[in-house]
Write a structure and sequence with these properties.
The complex is a heterotetramer of chains A (541), B (381), C (274) and D (437).
Chain A: H1 3-21, H2 28-40, H3 43-55, H4 61-69, E1 73-76, E2 89-94, E3 99-104, E4 110-115, E5 119-121, H5 126-140, H6 146-156, H7 162-174, H8 178-196, H9 199-205, H10 211-221, H11 226-275, H12 283-300, H13 305-330, H14 339-360, E6 377-379, E7 385-387, H15 388-410, H16 412-422, H17 424-429, H18 434-456, H19 468-481, H20 486-507, H21 509-526
Antiparallel strand pairs in A: 1-2, 1-5, 2-3, 3-4, 6-7
Helix pairs in contact in A: 1-4, 2-3, 3-5, 4-5, 5-6, 6-8, 7-8, 8-9, 8-10, 9-11, 10-11, 11-15, 11-18, 11-19, 11-20, 12-13, 12-18, 13-18, 15-16, 15-18, 16-18, 19-20, 20-21
Chain C: H1 2-8, H2 10-14, E1 32-41, E2 44-54, E3 59-63, H3 70-77, E4 85-90, E5 94-95, H4 101-107, E6 109-112, H5 124-131, H6 138-143, H7 148-161, H8 176-190, E7 194-198, H9 206-219, E8 224-228, H10 232-238, E9 241-246, E10 249-254, H11 256-261, H12 263-272
Parallel strand pairs in C: 3-8, 3-9, 6-7, 7-8
Antiparallel strand pairs in C: 1-2, 1-4, 4-5, 9-10
Helix pairs in contact in C: 5-8, 7-8
Chain D: H1 2-30, E1 34-39, H2 47-66, E2 75-80, H3 86-99, E3 104-107, H4 111-123, E4 128-130, E5 143-145, H5 154-165, E6 169-175, H6 178-193, E7 201-206, H7 214-224, E8 230-235, H8 241-250, E9 260-262, H9 267-270, E10 282-285, H10 294-307, H11 316-335, H12 340-347, E11 351-353, E12 359-361, E13 369-370, E14 373-377, E15 383-388, E16 393-394, E17 408-411, E18 418-422, E19 427-428, H13 433-436
Classes of the chains: A mainly alpha (541), B mainly alpha (381), C alpha/beta (274), D alpha/beta (437).
Chain lengths: 541, 381, 274, 437
């Protein structure tokens, strides 16, 4: 559970939980003893005690439970001679490093930093956590904000217990928001089907795509009551047909998102390789630089991963573009018209860049935080939800593609680039500075690689080997699409991604990849110049 | 160059080949003698560790020669020669695995250990026959040869050349690497084949066997070099160069370019296979990482460093780079990749002809040499 | 000079130019004929139903402004480019559209490129050696040894093209004109029935041009020669029949004088500003 | 004549050196430093994991030297870089043993690198301490396995999930190489023994560095929504983990719904992941940085001081080296020499404190006793221990759940002195018809 969410709920509580728990006076003795029990009892017991704490009516209870379920409730080890259970309870504010910032759980005053040695954190585990979630959700159900209630109700599905069931039925009566009501009803139905094998409840669940509901129905199919069994079966069948379509849509989405990643990785190469004919083996490392830029940004702007990410789009472009210029000036300009040599030289560069990152930054992967607005997924329906980060990346890929298209088609640079690539001497004689164009082109390609890096930092490792994992795929995409053709790259990337995802379910990840490679090899035999070859005289020779 | 001589004997009339063979022979002799005669601990003693190391270098040298044959003379930059190397290695590895017999940890007379503990109940069909040395050694040539034949036939027929060819060769070796990583393939997955016991009845762990392998590698390199030399000095060699420089022109002269390419490509692949086969027993393991595209690129760089289209350059390059690797990974590991990377860049940018380009005269001289009788006459004509 | 004198002794020039017995059947009519050939790149019609017949032993000049489709036509004949429609026959037996470059070449169609292409890494001698009409399959080529008469023939061609002294220099160091000659020499080594010569005198001195003219005319009769040329002077000096290509099809055909007085031709050339 | 003379000379020289070499090592060994070989990749793909182990060893050696070395001699580390290249591992091992004449080697991470080094170490009779959890099915006279065998990690973890969490459905997801393959084979056998039906087990393998987990995670999601509590047992290796966990988080699989227990994800791997969304997922190790003992806190303080990084993390393989080093040290003291054979005999039975408040003992099968800890990931990249075995578990070289090896035991003490003794056929090396079929 993320801290943000806990804090949010903490806030809600401060404002709204008073009517629920506010009727009793705070009592530190009782609190200390309750917490002590919580600390010293077994996992089995802890749940019950947590319940007691919630009911104790102490307005700090909510905070304790939050901290407890986040593993942030701790006790200062009683030093020699102190009485049993006299250890002070604290809420850990920051738990990184060897000394933790803590705050007194009872008085709430700041105790500064305390060495981990002297702290015993109160152990919590998954089942406890979900129990506490349950308890807290019930509290949330009385919040005025309908969305909060909906979220709470959703959370309740699947972990309703007898005590809660009663409370829910009461709450349902008073609930006026339709969605919340429905969800609560579902939650109850799930409980009924699971615990009581209630036939009418099955009806409520039929057609629900919620996994908990499905789970409940599944368990019902094992029951000995034939009627219930049958009802559950029918309900499941109707759900299954719905699911099929969702699955198909999902696979397509997966394919597109994988494809867009490929496109992003390859499109920079489509410029440097496709347009300039430079076999840039360091392309992967330029991607890596983009990813590391994102990391660097987030280090510079702690606590604002989102802003850092947005800023690192231009930054990543710039960094990689500059690196590209450096490469072009220092090496590639000396290798004009020797494409295979550029392959070797740039491969050398890629080795250097990797080792550079290892020695300067670290051989270890770096943490790049996913901002909230990019994590999680949007729910089309209970069964089909599109992961947000992928969605953003698809969009990003398209934006980058369109941008490049415009640059190549509409701008002076694009014109000059095409002129130079088609007939260098002629372009020169028409007063185009070929060298300048080369630099610009390579910088552009490299910069786009940087953008890819920024995007990739959101789905994969940010480490020295990042580039290597994408370089070969990138080349495949470019060659498959047809060198020197951005459209080709787009189509190739998306189709390869989709093919891969379609194959994966029955071929398995490895075989799928192999099959795709073999497919490309054979395809190149049939059409040596890719999907969209450059035709005519220009292509000859 | 002497055009009227038989293609097989022609190489021996070349100064460069004579020098190369001489140096190689001396080197192998000296190492062997020092290893046998010199007392351990004396400055001149060559430990079996060094012998094996040198053996490994020679394998790489042969591999580099194979690459130079296609790249230097045919203009085909293969980024997949590691695949042929590895296939040869696996063929040998399978033989060595079968030689272990029931001395494996599970004592299964037929199944290699990795099959036993992954519950394979019987030997997969493609493992049969590898208990016989002759079969295995044929496969060492056949496996890479066939792959090269099929792949080359498809590629050259449809005139896939230059960059495109390089990239799909890379795809080829990459696909093979993924395939061999799969444990279902029955080649030991990531662990590959290892823990070999003996070869042709000799215990691999004895110094004698090591020396034997080292000498065998030396001979293989010599033979391979002469074969390549014979090809490139033959008319076919000149046709290859013709294909490299002006493919269309060559066609209009009536040569079937794709067949020339296919022939040379297959020969090269087989040589690579032999190199792999000799490599495996000396390093004691073969695993899919030999298929890695990076390795294949590295080979090309050895050749580039030594100098394209000279063959002996390839040998020099392979030995220098790998020696450097041995040294650097020992003394300053962190700097190693910097050194290697910088090397790639510097060579390609400032040393396009490679080291061989630095020692001129060698090749020229041989030409004038063999020309002397004829050219003299014709000059007057 | 010495070469010039040699060229005048026809008997000595011709013994190695006698055509090889190629299976080309020219008993009834032309050695090469193109019928309604059309080819287009991305919609642009490089050749637009072109009809052309070359008689056995004829020397034909083809002129035409840039982009008239001259080179494309040669590509089609030599099998480098496949036309969209039309038929191309070599003699009355061989349908060239069914063959690839090597087959066509070994049938006896030799081609000289617009931009002289010789094997620059090989010596002049080796260039000619490779061109020589022999068994060109892989293994025979591998085991091939240079026989006395083959060497003699190479020497003769070397003399003809005047590169004897440079025989063991790499072709890369040759001047443009010398490369042109070397390429012609390679054609001679092939002993083709039909020579396609694309702009043979580009970048040649007056003197070299004369020699080229001499050579080409001397070839005619025994072999059919198709010359594509811009240089009107040169064309005039060798031409018997001239074909004018324009926008991928034949604009006019006839003797040099007829053609040069043809209003359409003049219009085209003036239109081209040439 | 002349030649003959030379040969005789050579031979006599040879003979001479032989006689010398008999006495030489002892003489040489007693003065001069004790050489400790360190065989960890410092470049290439494995550098991520292995370079810290190198530093750990250097730290331990430095500390030991500050405390007066060993047998009154200084310890001298010999570091080489096998560059994540498996054949190079064998070569470097040979270099260490034959050229540098080291007394002991600490090294290797991946199984394949160990397999590649094994023949060399056995041939040259060296000592190798291998610090990483591995698939078992191996016992070499010259290798000491200070990492976990499957029965010291996988089985207890599954037990925990089965009994404490009540898991009924299992996803065994791993990278396609020998460690996950073997572990999953063992687990499958084990689960079936405990009445788990075939359709309740889903096995899935992915290539190294697999980065596109979308469909697999969604399969897991579907598999998990069948009404029975489901858990994922992950033997996914290194780099593939980050995208895997990210996908889990994004597809909204929370530890409360489908917990993932990982055997290859430690503090170091987590340091490269944003652990916020992963809270509650599990890992099974024999050591966690969060373990609440003074020994551990001291070790962490030393490590932070040595690396100079306040955020430096410790992990299980580091503890394994810590234990291994101390065991070797004790054995050398006990034997009074660094002579390999003496140390090999002396080390069996040696007990040294581990970092989790207990003792580790070297068993006759060259594996050690370890406690098994189950930890839940916390938002600070640490694990909080939620369960641990009441006592330490001795490592099994041969799994009881694999048909090929259930009859094999390993005992390197005299008189048995055998790494794969078949208790059924009473024969070493399993050379027998029974084992053969």
């Amino acid at each position: 559970m993320s801290i943000i969410r806990s804090l949010k709920q903490l806030l809600i509580v401060c404002l709204l939980s008073l009517p629920v728990l506010g009727h009793a006076q705070a009592n530190d003795e009782q609190a200390q003893s309750l917490l002590t029990q919580l600390a010293e009892s077994s996992y089995g017991q802890k749940g019950k005690i947590a319940g007691e704490i919630a009911r104790s009516g102490d307005e700090r209870a909510r905070g304790w439970l939050e901290a407890f379920s986040a593993g942030k409730l701790a006790r200062i080890e009683p030093s020699k001679g102190d009485a049993e259970g006299s250890g002070k309870f604290v809420i850990v504010l920051s738990n990184r490093g060897r000394n933790w910032k803590v705050q007194d759980a009872l008085t709430g005053d700041d105790l500064g930093e305390i060495s981990r040695r002297d702290l015993d954190s109160i152990r919590v585990n998954n089942s406890l956590r979900s129990e506490i979630d349950g308890i807290l959700s019930v509290i949330d159900l009385t919040v005025n904000d309908a969305d909060k209630r909906l979220a709470a109700a959703r959370g309740l599905r699947g972990n309703v217990d007898e005590a809660m069931a009663k409370k829910l039925t009461e709450l349902m009566a008073s609930e006026e928001d339709a969605d919340v009501k429905a969800t609560l009803n579902e939650a109850l139905a799930i409980y009924k089907v699971e615990e009581q094998g209630d036939l009418s409840a099955v009806k409520t669940l039929s057609g629900s795509l919620n996994s908990e509901a499905r789970a409940a129905l599944n368990s019902a199919t094992y029951s000995d009551d034939p009627a219930l069994k049958q009802a559950a079966r029918d309900a499941l069948a109707s759900i299954e047909t719905k699911l099929k379509w969702n699955r198909a849509a999902e696979t397509l989405y997966f394919g597109l998102s994988l494809g867009s990643v490929l496109v992003l990785a390859a499109i920079g190469l489509a410029i440097t390789f496709g347009v300039m004919g430079v076999i840039n083996m360091a392309h992967g490392e330029l991607i890596m630089l983009g990813a590391y830029t994102t990391w660097g940004m987030q280090q510079m702007l702690p606590g604002q991963p989102g802003l850092a990410l947005i800023l690192s789009i231009p930054a990543g472009f710039l960094v990689s573009a500059l690196a590209g210029v450096a490469i072009e000036r220092s090496v590639i300009q000396f290798l004009k018209g020797r494409p295979l040599e550029t392959l070797l030289a740039t491969f050398g560069i890629s080795l250097v860049l990797q080792q550079l990152v290892r020695t300067v930054i670290s051989p270890l992967n770096r943490t790049v935080v996913t901002p909230d607005w990019m994590s999680g997924s949007i729910m089309v329906n209970e069964a089909l939800s599109l992961t947000l980060n992928r969605l953003y990346i698809i969009g990003f890929a398209l934006v980058v593609f369109v941008g490049l298209m415009l640059i190549m088609r509409k701008t002076r640079l694009g014109l000059e680039v095409r002129a130079v690539t088609q007939n260098r001497a002629m372009a020169r004689s028409m007063g185009i500075k070929a060298t300048k164009v080369d630099i610009m082109t390579f910088a552009l390609g490299s910069g786009v690689a940087g953008l890819a890096g920024v995007a990739l930092s959101q789905i994969t490792n940010v480490g020295p080997n990042l580039g290597q994992n994408y370089i070969i795929d990138s080349f495949m995409v470019v060659v498959f699409g047809g060198v020197g053709n951005l459209w080709g790259t787009l189509v190739a990337g998306l189709s390869l991604g989709t093919i891969n995802q379609l194959l994966e379910p029955w071929a398995g990840a490895v075989l799928a990849k192999i099959l795709v490679l073999v497919f490309i090899i054979l395809f190149i035999q049939k059409r040596p110049r890719g999907l969209f070859p450059q035709k005519g005289r220009a292509a000859e020779g | 160059m002497n055009y009227s001589q038989s293609w097989l004997t022609r190489p021996f009339t070349e100064r460069s080949t004579q020098i190369f063979l001489g140096v190689l022979f001396l080197a192998v002799m000296v190492v062997s003698v020092l290893h046998l005669v010199m007392p351990e601990g004396s400055a001149l003693y060559v430990s079996s560790y060094t012998v094996t190391l040198l053996g490994k270098y020679l394998c790489y040298a042969l591999l580099a020669v194979a690459v130079d044959l296609v790249w230097g003379y045919l203009g085909i930059l293969s980024l997949g020669h590691g695949a042929f190397f590895a296939l040869g290695g696996y063929a040998m590895g399978m033989y060595l695995m079968r030689q272990i017999g029931d001395r494996g940890v599970y004592g299964d007379p037929t199944l290699p250990d990795f099959m036993v503990f992954l519950n394979w109940d019987s030997l997969p069909w493609y493992w049969h026959g590898f208990d016989m040395a002759w079969f295995a050694f044929i496969m060492v040539l056949l496996a890479p040869g066939l792959l090269a034949l099929v792949f080359g036939f498809l590629a050259f027929r449809s005139r896939v050349t230059g960059v495109y060819l390089s990239i799909i060769t890379q795809a080829l070796t990459f696909a093979l690497m993924l395939a061999f990583f799969r444990n279902e393939m029955g080649f030991g997955g990531n662990n590959g084949l290892t823990d070999f016991k003996d070869i042709l009845g000799f215990d691999l762990r004895t110094d004698a066997a090591r020396l034997g392998l080292f000498i065998a590698t030396g001979i293989a390199l010599a033979v391979g070099y002469v074969i390549c030399r014979a090809i490139v000095t033959s008319k076919l060699g000149r046709v290859s160069v013709a294909c490299r420089d002006a493919e269309a022109r060559t066609r209009f002269l009536g040569y079937r370019v794709e067949r020339v390419q296919l022939f040379v490509f297959v020969v090269s692949a087989m040589l690579a296979g032999v190199a792999g086969a000799l490599y495996v027993p000396q390093v004691g393991i073969i695993n899919p990482s030999e298929f890695s595209p990076l390795f294949s690129i590295e080979i090309v760089v050895w050749v580039a460093l030594g100098g394209r289209a000279t063959l002996y350059g390839a040998v020099i390059g392979a030995i220098i780079v790998n020696y450097a690797k041995t040294v650097f990974t020992g003394i300053l590991p962190d700097a190693w990749l910097f050194a290697l990377g910088a090397l790639f860049v510097l060579v390609t940018v400032f040393l396009p002809k490679g080291i061989a380009g630095l020692l001129p005269g060698l090749k020229k001289k041989t030409d004038d040499e063999s020309e002397a009788p004829t050219s003299g006459k014709e000059a007057t004509a | 000079m010495s070469i010039m004198s040699e060229l005048t002794h026809r008997d000595r020039v011709f013994d190695f130019l006698t055509p090889t017995a190629s299976p080309v059947d020219v008993r009834h009519g032309p050695i090469l004929y193109l019928e309604d050939v059309t080819v287009s790149f991305d919609g642009f019609k490089a050749i637009n139903n072109l009809n052309l017949t070359i008689d056995d032993g004829e020397l034909r000049c083809i002129i035409g402004p840039n982009g008239a489709g001259k080179t494309t036509m040669m590509d089609i004949i030599t099998g480098k480019t496949r036309p969209d429609v039309g038929s191309v026959w070599f003699g009355s037996r061989h349908n060239l559209l069914t063959m690839n470059e090597p087959d066509i070449a070994s049938l006896g169609i030799g081609r000289k490129f617009q931009k002289p292409t010789v094997f620059e890494a090989l010596t002049v001698f080796e260039n000619l050696e490779l061109a020589m009409a022999t068994d060109k399959r892989v293994l025979p080529t591998l085991t091939a040894r240079l026989t006395g008469e083959a060497r003699a023939r190479i020497d003769e061609v070397l003399t003809t093209i005047g590169l004897t002294d440079l025989r063991h220099r790499e072709a890369g160091i040759l001047s443009h004109g010398q490369k042109q000659w070397l390429e012609i020499g390679m054609l001679l080594m092939q002993k083709p029935r039909l020579l396609l010569v694309d702009e043979p005198v580009a970048g040649m001195t007056e003197q070299e041009m004369e020699r080229t003219a001499e050579l080409l005319t001397s070839l005619a009769g025994k072999q059919s020669v198709v010359v594509v040329e811009h240089d009107m002077g040169f064309v005039r000096s060798i031409a018997r029949t001239v074909t004018v290509l324009h926008q991928g099809s034949v604009l006019a055909e006839g003797s040099m004088d007829d053609v040069s007085n043809d209003p359409k031709v003049i219009e085209v050339y003036l239109g081209e500003g040439a | 004549m002349k030649i003959k003379k030379q040969i005789t000379a050579g031979l006599s020289a040879l003979a001479l050196t032989l006689t010398v070499s008999v006495s030489a090592p002892v003489a040489a060994a007693d003065e001069g430093p004790i050489k400790v070989g360190i065989l960890h990749s410092l470049s290439g793909t494995m550098a991520i994991s292995e370079s810290t182990l190198k530093d750990t060893m250097l730290m331990l050696i430095k500390e030991q030297n500050e405390n007066g070395g060993l047998l009154g001699r200084k310890l001298e580390p010999v570091v080489v870089d096998p560059a994540s290249n498996w054949p190079l591992f064998a070569e470097k091992a040979r270099e260490l043993l034959a050229k540098d004449k080291v007394d002991v080697i600490f090294g290797n991470w991946t199984s394949v690198s160990r397999k590649s080094v094994l023949p060399v170490v056995e041939e040259l009779n060296g000592l190798l301490f291998y610090p990483v959890q591995y698939e078992g099915e191996e016992s070499s006279e010259n290798v000491f396995y200070t990492g976990a065998a499957p029965n010291q990690q996988a089985i207890p973890a599954v037990n925990y999930l089965m009994n404490q969490v009540g898991v009924k459905r299992w996803v065994l997801a791993g990278t396609d190489y020998v460690y996950p393959r073997t572990t999953n084979k063992i687990l499958e056998a084990y689960l079936k023994d405990h009445g788990v039906a075939d359709e309740d087990i889903m096995v899935n393998y992915t290539p190294f560095g697999h980065s596109n987990w979308q469909s697999i995670v969604s399969d897991i999601k579907t598999f998990g929504s069948q009404g029975k509590k489901t858990a994922v047992v992950s033997t996914i290796n290194g780099d593939a983990n980050v995208p895997f966990y990210r996908e889990l988080a994004n597809q909204g699989i929370k530890a409360e719904d489908i917990p993932v227990v990982a055997f290859s994800v430690g503090e170091q791997e987590l340091s490269g992941i944003d652990t916020g969304p992963l809270v509650g997922h599990l890992a099974a190790w024999n050591y966690f940085m969060s373990v609440d003992t003074d020994a551990n806190y001291d070790f962490i303080d030393k490590w932070v001081a040595y690396t100079g990084k306040e955020d430096a993390v410790t992990n299980d393989p580091m503890e394994a080296h810590y234990i291994g080093f101390n065991m070797w040290k004790e054995a050398v003291k006990k034997a009074g020499t660094t002579d390999v054979d003496a140390v090999k005999d002396a080390i069996i039975g040696v007990s040294v404190p581990n970092l989790t408040g207990g003792y580790a003992t070297m068993m006759p099968n060259h594996h050690i006793t370890k406690p098994v800890l189950i930890g839940e990931i916390q938002d600070n990249g640490q694990f909080s221990v939620v369960w641990q075995t009441p006592s330490t578990v001795a490592g099994d070289a041969w799994s009881d759940y694999l048909p090929g090896s259930k009859d094999l035991i390993s005992d390197w003490r005299k008189p048995l002195h055998c790494g794969n003794y078949n208790v059924v056929t009473k024969s070493c090396g399993g050379k027998s018809e029974v084992a053969a079929e």
